[in-house]
């Protein structure tokens, strides 16, 4: 029950903070909240840090609940801001569908990152989200290589992804397999952003 309350509390706070940041952050820092993938990080952390007695379905439920509460809070606060009666907007309906998929995926990845016996699967799952962030930043560097300029967005994505990896990997952060999984996934993410997205 305490983990459910934690998920709800963090979801509400993150949804409200996203709304406030959208309004008050300078335009050159809007990248911090423009992508809703940022909502996956707290959901992953809560699910990843569940005690070992929690099964995979519990992990999926907690991750999905965190994402749903975040999105519901954000979109509801948008309606309040515009003095509109609450209704199921297209944006919210789309988010609920994507949020369910994201919650299930995040929960499974967090569970594997915590419990998988195969080390590469375990380390790869634990470092997937940090690698996506790092890869996105590396993609920005590659695209602007000829006239590269270090921006807050690139720094946030590359360094933020690295810090997130070190936070999650814990005592395994410098193990060869853990680092290899993180670096390989970051490279794949960078190529995916470059050629497919």
Please provide a written account of the structure.
With 197 residues, this protein is an all-alpha fold. The longest helix is centred in the middle third of the chain and has 26 residues, at 56-81. The mean pLDDT is 84. The relative contact order is 0.11. The protein has helices at 2-24, 31-34, 40-48, 56-81, 90-115, 119-126, 128-143, 152-169, 176-195.
Any chance you could write out the topology, listing elements then pairs?
Elements: H1 2-24, H2 31-34, H3 40-48, H4 56-81, H5 90-115, H6 119-126, H7 128-143, H8 152-169, H9 176-195
Helix pairs in contact: 1-4, 3-4, 3-5, 4-5, 5-6, 6-9, 7-8, 7-9
Features:
single chain; 197 residues; mainly alpha; 76% helix; globular
Please provide a brief summary of the model.
With 197 residues, the protein is mainly alpha-helical. It is built from nine helices and no strands.
Uncertain spans: none
Number of helices: 9
> Measured on Cα atoms, how large is the radius of gyration?
17 Å
- Percent range for helical residues? over 70%
Shape: globular
Mean pLDDT over the residues: 84
Portion in beta strands: under 5%
The ordered string of helix (H) and strand (E) elements is HHHHHHHHH
Biggest sheet descriptor: none
Span between termini: 39 Å
**Structural class assignment:** mainly alpha
Beta strand count: 0
């Amino acid at each position: 029950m305490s983990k459910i309350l934690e998920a709800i509390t963090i979801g509400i706070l993150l949804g409200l903070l996203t709304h406030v940041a959208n309004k008050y952050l300078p335009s050159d820092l809007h990248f911090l909240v423009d992508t809703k993938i940022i909502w996956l990080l707290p959901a992953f952390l809560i699910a990843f840090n569940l005690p070992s007695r929690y099964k995979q379905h519990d992990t999926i439920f907690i991750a999905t609940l965190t994402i749903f509460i975040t999105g519901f809070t954000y979109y509801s606060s948008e309606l309040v801001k515009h003095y509109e009666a609450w209704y199921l907007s297209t944006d919210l309906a789309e988010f609920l569908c994507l949020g369910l998929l994201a919650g299930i995926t995040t929960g499974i990845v967090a569970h594997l990152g915590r419990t998988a016996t195969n080390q590469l699967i375990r380390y790869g799952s634990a470092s997937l989200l940090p690698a996506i962030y790092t890869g996105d930043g590396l993609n920005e560097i590659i695209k602007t290589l000829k006239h590269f300029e270090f921006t807050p967005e690139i720094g946030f994505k590359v360094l933020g992804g690295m810090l997130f990896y070190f936070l999650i990997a814990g005592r395994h952060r410098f193990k060869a397999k853990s680092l290899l999984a993180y670096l390989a996934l970051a490279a794949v993410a960078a190529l995916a952003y470059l050629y497919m997205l």
